[in-house]
Amino acid sequence: MIKSLQKKFIFTAMIAVSVLLLFLLGAINIANILLVSGDVQRNLSMIADREFGIYNIPVEPKQEPIFFQRPKEDAFMSANFFIVTYDKNNKIINIDVSRIPSVDENEAQKFAQNIDDINGRVSKFRYEVRQNDYKKIIVFLDTSAEIISYLRVLLLSGALGLICWLLMLTLVIILSKKAICPIAESVVCQKFSLSDMALEVSDSFLESMALKNIAFETKIESDIILNANSENIRQLFSILLDNAVKYTDENGLISLSLTKSDKNIIIDLQNTCETLPYINPEKLFDRFYRADKARTQKTGGYGIGLSVAKAIVNAQNGKITVNYINNNKICFKIIF
Pfam families given for it (predicted)? Predict the structure, then answer.
């Protein structure tokens, strides 16, 4: 459930990040298109005015916004364009392709014949028309550099956007566990009767105890409430009782007590054992540790039960200990 919640958190967060990145990248590319298109259009208008014989009267230079500066003479010198000139009868009288090596006169004439507006785009060229009562010129400006600029910014912004997206994904994954921790705790933990659960789980082992003629004593106070993951606590009782049944000899004794003292809840489980392990009892919590290998082969199990029990107790901020009593008993004590 926690994994599912974490995945949903990551998915939702990355959807938001993706939308934001797409908006920013879109804004950057649209701004670039507008700026470059504006520069190209101003260059085209300047060239058309020069070729048509329109010259602006020089004025006192002034500082203009950086994004809207007028085209300079360098733009004219570096531009690739061709011009088709018509007389007043709309007949072609001149085709100038000297400023563009990629177009010949026949191609220029074909482009001019397809023009039906005063400005626009045809193929990779932008065009603009100037005319009076005596002549008309059509200036075609090559916009290959404009297209390359669009693509360059698009690819660069896309690459940066992808890098940012991956970095954000990594950051979201790292922080997701902490982000959902309060929600996870409220979803997983709930108040339940620990007394009822202890009795219920104990009853499920009565048959196994009877097969070995094991006596079972209980001292369970009523109405003890615990706020925890109920399924984990149920598993805890099952592990401890299963372990007790397996390692208690025939005609032995298992005793379970559940009490409440001040703010603490105490679970005490004891079982008799003819031969106690000659090791520190805390070793029993080590994963895969077997106190008696010969006996383990008869009783079965995977050797991880008690380590799981300890993990469950630790997850609930509790404490579990194990001790030997009178050389014939093992006592597990849990405090919540």
Answer: HATPase_c
pLDDT digits (tens, 9 = 90+) for 205-240: 999 999 999 999 999 999 899 988 888 899 999 999
Q: Are the beta carbons of 215 and 175 closer than 8 angstroms?
A: no
Top-confidence residue, 277 or 297: 277
The average confidence (pLDDT) of the chain is 83
Q: Is the pLDDT of residue 301 over 70?
A: no
pLDDT at 65 over 90: no
Can you name the residues that pair with 254 across neighbouring β-strands? 216, 271
Residue 30 CB burial class (10 angstroms; 0-12, 13-18, ≥19): exposed
Whether 300 contacts 290, CB under 8 Å: no
Q: What would the DSSP string read from start to end of 4-63? A: HHHHHHHHHHHHHHHHHHHHHHHHHHHHHHHHHHHHHHHHHHHHHHHHHT--PPP-----
Report how far residue 140's alpha carbon sits from residue 83's, in angstroms, rounded to the nearest whole number: 6
Q: Exposure of 86 by Cβ count < 10 A (0-12 exposed, 13-18 middle, 19+ buried)?
A: middle
Cα distances from 203 to residues 246, 276, 309, in angstroms, run 16, 27, 20
Residue of 86, 152, 89 lying closest to 113 (CA atoms)? 86
How far apart CA 180 and CA 247 sit, in angstroms, is: 41
Which of 233, 215, 203, 222 is CA-nearest to residue 271?
215
Q: In the structure encoding, which two tokens stand for residue 185, read together?
A: 């705790």
The tokens of 270 are what?
A: 């004891």
CA end-to-end span of the chain, whole Å? 24
- How far is it, in rounded angstroms, from Cα 68 to Cα 63? 10
Residue type, 324: Y
Query: Phi and psi for 69 in degrees, rounded to 5?
Result: -75, 150
How many whole angstroms separate alpha carbon 22 and alpha carbon 33? 16
Instruction: Report how far residue 112's alpha carbon sits from residue 106's, in angstroms, rounded to the nearest whole number.
Output: 10
**C-alpha R_g of the chain:** 43
Which residues pair with residue 82 across a beta bridge?
140
